[in-house]
Design a protein that fits this description.
5 helices; mainly alpha
């Protein structure tokens, strides 16, 4: 290959690479999801988190050689709630926020997150609140999620 052909090919490659790097910063890339897309992706995230949480709970019971919360005793129940079951739920809000609330739905999503934060705070203050009563601190965020259209998100 002579020097002129090499320079021509090299220059064409540089131009092609520069052109590929240009553009792509249109507003379409930063547009929010539609409500249907947000629900579909959010439910998928929630399902994945719930599967991990369920596995972690099962592993905890196996490790403690217990078949029920009662067999764990008070300290075991507290450990189960605070160290095993709650951490995945705490991370869920960030994962859903990363999806970006659909335009115009920000206040509904924010209300759901606020209710979730309140439920988490209640459980951290009183871990037995999710085990000892038919009513759960997570009822409110679950109701808001269902009202919004989620099928699996925040259904604890």
């Amino acid at each position: 290959m002579n020097k002129q052909v090499f320079i021509f090919v090299f220059a064409a490659l540089i131009i092609a690479l520069a052109a590929a790097g240009c553009g792509g910063s249109s507003d379409d890339e930063t547009s929010s999801l539609t409500k249907a897309q947000f629900i579909k992706q959010g439910d998928a995230v929630c399902k994945e988190v719930e599967e991990k949480r369920g596995k972690a709970i099962g592993d905890f019971y196996d490790k403690e050689e217990a078949r029920s919360a009662q067999e764990l005793g008070a300290k075991g129940q507290e450990k189960l709630v605070l160290e095993v079951a709650l951490p995945p739920v705490k991370g869920l809000e960030g994962e859903l926020e990363a999806l970006g609330a659909p335009e115009g739905d920000e206040s509904e999503i924010e209300a759901m997150f606020k209710a979730l934060d309140q439920a988490i705070a209640e459980v951290e203050k009183n871990p037995n609140s999710v085990l000892a009563s038919a009513e759960s601190p997570f009822d409110k965020p679950g109701e808001l999620a269902t009202k919004y259209g989620f099928e699996t998100c925040l259904q604890y």
